[in-house]
Amino acid sequence: MKSSWVLFTASRYMFKGRGSSPVLSVLGIAVGVLSLIVIIAVMNGFQLGFIESIIELSSYHLQLESFPTERVEDLQKSILEIPGIKAVVPYKEFQALARGRRSGQQAVLARGLHENTLFYDEAMKDKLEFEEGAFDLSQPGSILLGTELARRLGLDTDDFVTLYSITGILSAEEDEGGLDIFEIKGIFRTGYLEYDQSLAFINIESVSFLTNESDLKLGIKLVNRFNDRNLMEQINRKLQSFDFADSVKISSWRDYNRSFFGALRTEKLFMFILVGLIFIVVGLNIFQAQRRAVLQRREEIGLLRAVGGTEKSVRFVFVIDGAIIGFTGAGTGLILGLAIAYNISLFFTIVENIVNWFIGIINGLAGLFGIGWADNFSVFSPQYFYIKEITSRIILHEVIIIFLFGFLSALAAAWFASRKIAKIQPAEVLRYE
Questions:
Q1: Which residues of 350-368 are buried (b: 16+ CB within 10 A; e: fewer)?
Q2: Residue 16: pLDDT above 50?
Q3: SS3 156
Q4: Same domain, 242 and 268
Q5: Based on the domain organization, do 19 and 156 belong to the same domain?
Q6: How many of the other CB atoms lie within 10 Å of CB of 154?
Q7: pLDDT band per the 50, 70, 90 thresholds, residue 185
Q8: Are residues 159 and 10 in the same domain?
Q9: DSSP strand E in 283-390: where?
Q10: How much is the pLDDT for 302?
Q11: Domain count of the fold of the chain
Q12: Vertex 257: Cα angle to 237 and 55 (nearest 5)
């Protein structure tokens, strides 16, 4: 019962009291939470798409190298016994030049794989989208090209491409060493431009005909790639049963493209900070509004103090108002932000249609005077961006942090604004009442 009057007074001040309306403060926090959730979700979609393309297609989660080729099957079987290991893929790779119908050559990273690789590596299968043909490396003369690489070379499926291995040519004793002709069995798209214009897959048996410097490696996929340190230790313990354990080198995905991953993380952090400045602006607005409310209610505060209300209880009245503003605004922004983030493609389609509707009206009016005004609007036009669709990824702990930022900014502003109550003396306020 002692606290019931605090809640009653806070609700009266919030919804029926005099002073500035809390609507603008609620809207400010809602817009901040909504914007930050949507922006971070879209950024996560792009960044994680790039990171997963690198890890699932090129770097793997863990890599093993410098082991005897004839013991690869024993090594595979031993590693697959470890819980948390999803796939172990043997591969070879080398740098080469590809020549097609057009003049000129394109540098490629040629990777030799077994024909059944996708059967074991489902994550790689999910990242490869074949626009023509399929993953067919059943014949030694088969090759798969990225879409941009095929386009630049002017090639389609069933065409032939010549691969030149520089190291193979330099080390070969015969004129034909270091080069071979392959038939294109499939053209794939990863969504990552660098791979689509420079990656090629060939049958692993063909690699030895092109170069002698490509050692066999094992690419390891984990159930949880963030458990890599623990699994590296378990793999090292497994390796102790082999006589070649000291020569084996094992590395983690954290070691590959470290600078690239760091740049993406820094970019995301600064975007988080810049958009988060909205909360500072809204918090200052709430602070000023609450300070003004304290000054306007000096007499009421003095009366509450005179009838027994403690300074802490009266301050709590205004803190509850700030909490209501923060929770309402952050909750509204959270719901709308998640709704937009989960339907981001539909949202951008609606925005584009609305903008293009206005552009159509303006173009129609401009056409009456024989002039053109503008082309159709596209947020991420394929003409400028190498994407087919806009993706978003919701990460739970980031959403919780954004919600707490919005809620706590209002709560902190109300708390600091209510400090002025300590300077209000009931006797002075009520002297002339």
A1: eebeeebeeeeeebeeeee
A2: yes
A3: coil
A4: no
A5: no
A6: 11
A7: very high
A8: no
A9: none
A10: 64
A11: 2
A12: 65
340-393, pLDDT tens digit by residue? Answer: 988 887 887 787 788 878 777 777 776 666 665 666 666 666 666 666 777 888
Please report, as a single letter, which amino acid is at residue 215.
D
Q: Which amino acid is at 144?
A: L
Strands 179-189 and 217-222, bridge-based pairing: unpaired
Both 88 and 231 in one domain: the answer is yes
**Strands annotated E in 73-178:** 85-99, 106-113, 129-133, 142-146, 160-164
What pLDDT shows up at residue 32? 85
Q: Rounded CA gap, 74 and 63, in Å? A: 16
Predicted local distance difference test score (pLDDT) of residue 49: 81
Strand, coil or helix: 121: coil
Q: Pull the structure tokens for residue 37.
A: 């959730």
Residues 135 and 272 both lie in one domain: no
Residue 229 to residues 61, 94, 252, 253: CA-CA distances in angstroms?
A: 11, 28, 8, 10
Last residue of a domain, one of 200, 232, 258: 258
129 closest CA partner among 185, 193, 187, 184: 187
What range defines the domain where residue 354 resides? 4-50+261-429
First-last CA distance in the chain: 29
Confidence of residue 326 (pLDDT cuts 50, 70, 90): confident
The structure tokens listed for 404 are 């707490």
Q: Are residue 223 and residue 331 in the same domain, yes or no?
A: no
- Whether 257 contacts 51, CB under 8 Å: no
pLDDT at residue number 331: 92
Q: 203, 228, 258: which is the final residue of a domain?
A: 258
CA atoms within 13 A on the CB side of 234: 15
Q: What pLDDT, on a 0 to 100 scale, did the predictor assign at position 274?
A: 79
Tokens read off for 181: 């002709």
In the numeric block, the tokens 């400045």 are attached to: 277
Q: Does residue 102 carry a pLDDT above 50? A: yes
Burial class (CB in 10 A: 0-12, 13-18, 19+), 32: buried
Mode of pairing for the β-strands spanning 160-164 and 249-252: unpaired
The verdict on 150 and 107 lying in the same domain is yes
Tens digit of each residue's pLDDT (9 = 90 or more) over 52-85: 888 888 788 899 888 888 888 888 888 988 999 9
Q: Judge if 267 and 180 occupy the same domain.
A: no
d(CA 142, CA 163): 12
